[in-house]
Amino acid sequence: MTENKDQGFLRELGDRSQFDFVDQDTVSFLSEKGLNEDVIRQISYFKEEPDWMLNFRLKAFEHYTKRPMPTWGPDLSGLKLDDIHYYVRPKQVDQKSWDDVPGNIKNTFDRLGIPEAEQKFLSGVGAQYDSEMVYHSVQEELQKQGVIFLSIENGLKQYPDLFKEYFSTVIPYQDNKFAALNSAVWSGGSFVYVPKGVKVELPLQAYFRLNNADMGQFERSLIIADEGAQVHYVEGCTAPLYRSESLHSGVIEIVVKKNARVRYTTIQNWSTNIYNLVTQRAMVYQDGVMEWVDANLGSRITMKYPSCYLREPGAHGEMLSVAFAGPGQIQDAGSKMIHFASNTSSKITSKSISRSNGQASYRGLVKVASGLDHVQSSVNCDALLLDRESRSDTYPTIDIRSKNVTIGHEATVSKIGEEQLFYLKSRGLSDEEATTMVVSGFIEPLVKELPMEYAVELNRLIQLQMIGTVG
Q1: Which residue in 302, 304, 294 sits closest to 236, CA to CA?
Q2: 205: number of Cβ within 10 Å
Q3: Which whole number is the average pLDDT over 252-279?
Q4: Separation between Cα atoms, residue 200 and residue 246, nearest integer Å
Q5: Cα gap 448→454, rounded to integer Å
Q6: Does some domain include residue 307?
Q7: How far apart are CA 74 and CA 85, in angstroms?
Q8: Does some domain include residue 22?
Q9: Which CB contacts under 8 angstroms, 24+ apart, belong to 453-457?
């Protein structure tokens, strides 16, 4: 039999060569394995930080050592924290011109399409390689309007007062064990400030690449949308596959001021040796809107629950997520919506797909403080199982301490329909192509919220994940 074009395309997608490649000789400094005060001081020294930041890191490290590992979610016993390099510095850091980025690092991002993306449809782009941002750029027109889009290190250096006003106010190091770890060893990430009334029409993008084995990546991003401002920030993540485990533990802090609007989109495709343990939170003030759009396809274990703290009347938070759990993967994801003020609203829409013994879980929290009026929240969780070996779980927590509220929660779990498959196959599709089409329809609510180029990429990644689902 000859291979038709669609089969050839799907077979090609099964080859992760676009992501599973390793660049050699890119490191100028590699910390010893494990974490101690000397490693933290080395990080701070390389970054030429003020004393207050070093002291912050050391306090966070002390807190980290005292906090136990979380036991309420997936089993993290396979993560060997003493076998990780906590700081891997590439040879050149944070270039303003793409031409100045070292050739082998530049080739990595060329293969991933980053420069092309910047030229075609982005307002600005940042690229992180292992522990450091190697490139950051923003359109000149936005600079003239006062938009700041820098690596977080340059944000600290160039805007120290603004940085210090907001840093660690949304997610303090005492929040959880991995927030404390990130606070101790953070490196890389973006610093974004959008002034009052400025609307950034095209997305800002940051791309995070883990190249070396046995390492941790601990980017920290701080995004501030001033009154009436608007911005869309897109994050992409990849890494080559190694036999040993690596750790990604980012912290994302977002401030959405009065009448501002922020959308934060993640398309995460880590390799299956990565533990992805992330803390993401937004503080939303009067009539502000925060939207999380989250796609989790890679990693061995993901624990990620983007949250909104709705602080003032009129604040609104939304979460739209999809998780795909394949062989040996656990996607434990969800959202937290905390209502601190009357006349606030939130919406959570979660989609998950499991195949070949993958486990996908929704874990969420809706909390309404006491004494509030006119609070609305809805949660909708849909899970699709592609075979009998896969698993889906829902762990909702609803904590309501006020009377005048409207809260809804709906959860469904379904298997792929035999009638759907029969109809599609009767139109000439193979089993695998028919299954892929059903899955694509299932995640359409998320895909249609993405810019066209990212929607194409997500569909492409879903097709890659579907290789080998039948037969």
Answers
A1: 294
A2: 25
A3: 92
A4: 35
A5: 10
A6: yes
A7: 23
A8: no
A9: 453/117, 453/120, 453/121, 454/234, 454/265, 454/267, 457/267
Tell me: the pLDDT tens digits for 371-430?
A: 999 999 999 999 999 888 999 999 999 999 999 999 999 999 888 767 777 767 777 787
pLDDT in tens, 51-108: 999 999 999 999 999 999 999 999 999 999 999 999 888 765 555 555 655 555 555 5
Q: How far is CA 158 from CA 161, 169, 432, in A?
A: 9, 19, 53
- Percent of the residues in the chain that have a pLDDT greater than 90, as a whole number: 56
Please give the residue range of the domain that contains residue 401.
Answer: 27-429
Q: Would you say 320 and 310 are in contact if contact means Cβ atoms under 8 Å apart?
A: no
Tokens representing 72 are 């309420």
Total of domains in the chain: 1
Q: Specify if 92 maps to a domain.
A: yes
- Quote the CA–CA distance of 61 and 55 in Å, as a whole number: 10
The answer to whether residue 56 is domain-embedded is yes
**Cα–Cα distance measured from residue 22 to residue 19, given in angstroms and rounded to the nearest whole number:** 9
Q: What pTM does this model have? A: 0.85
